[in-house]
Design brief:
457 residues, alpha/beta, Rossmann fold, Alpha-Beta Plaits, binds magnesium ion
Length: 457
Amino acid sequence: MTARILVVDDIPANVRLLEVRLLAEYFEVLTASNGPDAIETCENGKVDVVLLDVMMPDMDGFEVCRRLKSDPATSHIPVVMITALDQVSDRVRGLEAGADDFLTKPVNDLQLMTRVKSLVRLKSLTDELRLRASTTRNIGIEELLSRNFAAEDTMPKVLLIDERKTSVERIQKMLRDRADLDISSDPHAGFFQAAETSYECVMISTAFADFDPLRLCSQLRSLDRTRFVPIILLAEEGEEERIIRGLELGINDYLMRPIDQQELTARLRTQVRRKRYNDQLRASVTQTIEMAVTDGLTGLHNRRYLDSHLQTLFDRAVARRRPLSVMITDLDRFKAINDTHGHDGGDEVLREFARRLRKNVRGIDLACRFGGEEFVVVMPDTEGAVAEKVAERIRAEIAQAPFAIGQDGTKIEVTVSVGVSSVLKGVDTVAALMKRTDLALYEAKSGGRNRVVAKAA
Ligand SMILES: [Mg+2]
């Protein structure tokens, strides 16, 4: 794993120390000796993790962190605070400034590497999502971020897996009014509970009499539904090795007992904030993809989707020597509907038509709004004669019952003309197939409308 790490410290010897150790692990290293330089380097992009000294003249690490985290252009870059003092108050201040983690000087080598690697992993996931989201123009990353900050107020849903009653009670008390906390005292049951409910964080105690807590961590990481849920390990003093193994398995953070309330809530907040940010990115990517291939009015696929998939379906049918049929439907005299009932009325007719169309095709059929009042259905594994029957069923379904539109439910008669064609044995192309289908539709129109015409294969 290669990544670019920015080391920020006002003392050159400290910078050099970290630089050497990171270079030995094949990381690329950038350096800065003060806050403003560090911020500028981050703004220029391509920093994967920032290792940030707390004690610096002029602008201290807390301030640098706060500025990085409040700027949408840099807020996604993980920041590790490095403090000389192993003081809970410093850690809490750092986490409140938005730091993702902290290390204390002298920096323990294993901790440094595992923390950096785990943050780099997380960052690359975020980067990929950001990239996908930003390649589509209708998504504003910055707007997404501001929504993210607004959502921070809601209580996170958290699962605590811990079999010790006193510990559970203490944590319950600490998180009262700060988290919607579920408890599982059994690690097996806890695993299923985590898989069934969507938690924003799972906290796992290491203190089971008869169970390896890391097994639970690795199970959660290997299951699709829990792969991205933040895991915080609640460890005992002296469990360094176990924590490092845990970080390698993908836990996101840990706390040492006795647990400090402020540190617990700050770390929990950091994990939840990051999860919500990534969830929103993921959702917006999915939504963008859906929007790009869906017709907004009818919810059917759009022409772009048809254009990109028809060739694939066609090639597959030819390769497997399976039939494939296409129908093009066109609402009769749709312009008159628009003229009489307005565009809202026309839209209602299109939506109702799409609903009836969808009801009469199978899940594997590809139904699209081709444009205007024209719809295309691609039917894999379907002979022409069968496709013709389907088309006839759709035609009848439209003509049989009038469409109710408007507030008063005005009933109007709607009919549809349909052209049907199928892939020919021997040489055929998508363009030729569509042309034959279009010709069939034209014949249905010129033959008097409200009818199906099939071009025999
Ligand atoms: Mg310093």
